[in-house]
Sequence to fold (67 residues):
Amino acid sequence: MIESFSLGDIVQMKKPHACGGSEWRITRVGADVKIRCLTCDRVVMLDRQDFIRAGKKVLRTAEKEEP
Fold:
């Protein structure tokens, strides 16, 4: 289960994608979470609660840009 996440983070899901990839980049955060597979570039949108339940861990956090 993933406790905290933000836009641009790389996450690992509990189950691998059909292409064999297990790393995903978060591209949208809100009531729904949109993630993009880093192996095949497929986009999946999940309900926030489903994403939290299906996520295993945050592998890398997004770089924060200073204005």
Q: What stands out?
A: The chain has one domain: 10-60.
